[in-house]
Here is the input.
Amino acid sequence: MYRPERMNKLDAKLAAELLQRTNASAVVGLIGVGIMYYVHRAAVEMRLLLLWSTLMASIFGARVLFGSLALKRLSGREGDDALRFVNVEAFLCTLAGLGWASSVYGFESGELDARFYLRLMILAAGLAFTMNSMGVFKRVFIGFAVGMVLPVAYFLWTCPYLPERDVLLVTVLAYLLMVLLVSGALSDRVRKAMSDHLEVISLTERLQALLKTETELRAAMSTLAMTDELTRALNRRAVIEHIEADIARCRRHGHPLAVVMLDLDFFKLVNDTYGHATGDLTLQRVATALREVLRTSDAFGRFGGEEFLIGLPTLSSEHAMAMAERLRLAVEQAEVRTEFVDVRITASLGLAFYRDGDDSRSLLGRADAALYRAKHKGRNRCEVES
Here is the structure.
């Protein structure tokens, strides 16, 4: 049994499949109308033949037009909306079946001529063809088949000049029963195949969603593992790894590299005077101010406490010193506003440049020594390695 939530999608898919076959079915029907017209043009009153042909062509034309419009509107619709389109198609197909049956009555000549058997052959062929094109939904094909065959069966039963009418009638009804059974089996098979197809799609979508969630979780965990929780800058390990990667690129391509060790002046006094909450806000505000100055390619991390480490790849010594000065000014101009007090703070900076044979420890050691000199020389300044 199909689950209700999947039944809607299944009916929508099957309705689209039915409507996509409508054009081919209608074209074949129009060909049949043309054959019927050509064969009977000299044997049937022209006005009656034209009227019948026009009505049949109008039914098939309506099916083509409705099928095209319904396919456009069916996109994204499910359940009841899809079944409404199917019901309209079933109604039009029933009219087509009755139209074919009417040809047996309208074109009857009162004798068993070749045209009589041709009409029966055209109806039998049309029934067999539409079993495939309309069989996606049982109601559509049953409407067409019953609308065609029952009037024909009644004609055969009441026709006075037919020999062995009971044999012919039983044959026609047996053919109808066989076609209905085959159509029902075909419909069930198509529905089962489409249901399995939708199940595969659903499982694939769920799997993709799970994989996406897992990827996002891994990325989030990786980000958390490399990020300082308070300032959202890189943590100590991550920023050192970033600078080590920059050093490797320097060795490979010969690009310049500068590192800045930045320490906030008298930060302990901020914590002792205004509390650790204000101290945390100060660190966050400073990190934001520094990030606004830096490039996306620059490494920026919290080295520890109130100390930050910054990597400046591809900058010449002149541009690196200018960047260090911009960083100092950014801290000096940053203001932390709280409910009770506005806090300003300054920073001391040490700047060092990559030399052949450097590793992260030696490069950061020279930057730290330059920072030590900046503090001894009065703070709120940048010193370059000696």
Observations:
- The chain is about 70% helix and 10% strand.
- Residues 4-205 form one domain.
- The two ends are 82 Å apart (CA to CA).
- The chain has a mean pLDDT of 85.
